[in-house]
Write a structure and sequence with these properties.
This protein is mainly beta. The protein has one helix at residues 2-16, and strands at 21-24, 29-30, 42-46, 50-59, 67-76, 82-92, 95-96, 106-111, 116-118, 130-135, 146-158. It has one domain: Immunoglobulin-like (Sandwich), CATH 2.60.40. The protein is 9% helix and 45% strand.
Length: 159
């Protein structure tokens, strides 16, 4: 009876705490406006289960102003399905504009085994995978400019 109780307790504790769930620390990426930012995929985070890359792109949307954006790419490196969640901390002109709104800037995606997803410039693209950097339109260059970004509370659940 005691052995059954211990086994049941073990299962309940690990089910409740999200067995297979991991939270990772990430780095703040500063945007250097006086230098060339990476236009090729650059690794933001990499571990045994996944890799996150980013790159700067010039976007010419069908609607709206031309802009520079940062595209994100997530790749599942495992034969299991993984659930990834994070918050975006976005700093414009040195001030974090999203830090006080963690619910609004919370994102999650599910990646199938060995699946890779990446953002694009399309106006209808997945905003989870895109970060606005600045306007570059010849008729409109006003507005704040991204000075840093960070994906915080990066969580990974392997199913």
């Amino acid at each position: 009876m005691i052995k059954l109780f211990k086994t049941t307790l073990f299962v309940l504790v690990f089910s409740y705490t999200g067995y297979g769930q991991q939270e990772f620390s990430t780095n703040l990426i500063e945007v250097d406006r006086n230098a060339q930012n990476p236009i090729d995929w650059t690794t933001y985070y990499d571990n045994e289960e996944m890799v996150i890359d980013y790159k700067f792109v010039q976007c010419d949307p069908s609607i709206g102003y031309d802009n520079e954006s940062i595209l994100l790419k997530f790749k599942n490196k495992t034969p299991q399905t993984i659930q990834v969640s994070w918050n975006k901390n976005l700093y414009y002109d040195g001030v974090c504009k999203t830090c006080d709104y963690p619910d609004e800037y919370y994102y999650e995606i599910q990646l199938q085994p060995f699946e890779e997803v990446e953002g694009n410039c399309s106006i209808s693209s997945n905003n989870k995978l895109k970060i606005f950097s600045k306007f570059v339109d010849q008729h409109y260059t006003k507005g704040l400019k991204l000075t840093a970004f960070e994906l915080v509370k990066l969580n990974l659940i392997v199913n």
